[in-house]
Amino acid sequence: MNQNKNSIPNSTVTRDLRELDKGTDNIYESIVVISKRANQISVDVKDELNQKLSEFASSNDNLEEVFENREQIEISKHYERLPKPSLVAVDEFLHDKIYFRNPSKEQD
What we know:
Blueprint: H1 17-20, H2 27-54, H3 70-81, H4 85-94, H5 103-107
Helix pairs in contact: 2-3, 2-4
InterPro entries: Pol_omega/Rpo6/RPB6
Pfam family, one: RNA_pol_Rpb6
Keywords: DNA-directed RNA polymerase, Transcription
């Protein structure tokens, strides 16, 4: 996930609802588009994190053999600092970086 961390805030931001419905002319449709994109981002980040952490998995995990791996901790901290998928999706939607279509509107 290559995001520009400077442009996307890590905390919640108050948004003007009139800006959210510009692309769809319907606030609810905009929210559906944003939520679907947030789910896609979340799945991608989770897969990426699981892939990186699978390198550290050992076949015999015992309570006695648990040890801290500094590299594994750093990877986890990096992913914890990333902006939430919903914030990334809203930013992408507002900057027209999401392609979406509504088949029911195309039939009319």
